[in-house]
Each structure stands twice: as C-alpha cells, then as structure tokens.
Amino acid sequence: MMVLITYDVNTETEAGKKRLRQVAKACQDYGQRVQNSVFECLIDAACLKKLKARLEKLIDAEKDSLRYYYLGDDWRGRVEHIGAKSTFDLEGTLIV
Question: Rounded to 10 degrees, what is the CA torsion of 7, 94, 87, 80?
Fold first, then answer.
C-alpha cells in the first residue's frame, strides 16, 4: 500500500535537530522524499508497523508531529505531480 508520511519536528534545540535527522533517515529507509518533510512509502502492513514504532519512539510528542495518509493499493489515481522535482518508480526495478 502507498502511505504518505509527513512530519514536523521542532528544531529549536540540538536535540530537535538530531530528532529531525533521525526521522528523515527512518523514512528514507522505507520510501522516497517528495518534499522536505514528506515521504511516499510503498510498504506492506508489517513494515509499516515497524516504521511507525520506530518513528513514534524518535519524536517528542509534546513538540513534534507525525501524520500518516493511507492511499492504499490504488494510489496512482490519487497522486498528481506537477513541477521539477523528479521521482523514481517505487514499483519499478531498482538498479544499484
């Protein structure tokens, strides 16, 4: 399923800046960055559960926020991209 993950981490302190980097790294392990604090993740339920647990341990719930948007398996008709930032096909072949 496609899940859009967004976050807002308070970076007024060094600890906040560290949390921001950790949250971004966790999301990057499962998807692609499409905006500064927005990731598209093509993910199964088990991996999503792991990612959510990881993210929710990282943030400070009193200062930061996470949002999960569940676009499901039929996500292509729900996403439209206009502009310069290119993306890669999450379901395509990955060449390393």
Answer: -90
pLDDT in tens, 32-91: 999 999 999 999 999 999 999 999 999 999 999 999 999 877 666 666 666 676 665 555
CA torsion 27→89→79→60, rounded to 10°? Answer: 0
Write down the pTM of the prediction: 0.78
d(CA 89, CA 75): 13
Q: Are 23 and 9 in contact (CB under 8 A)?
A: yes
C-beta neighbour count of 95 within 10 angstroms: 4
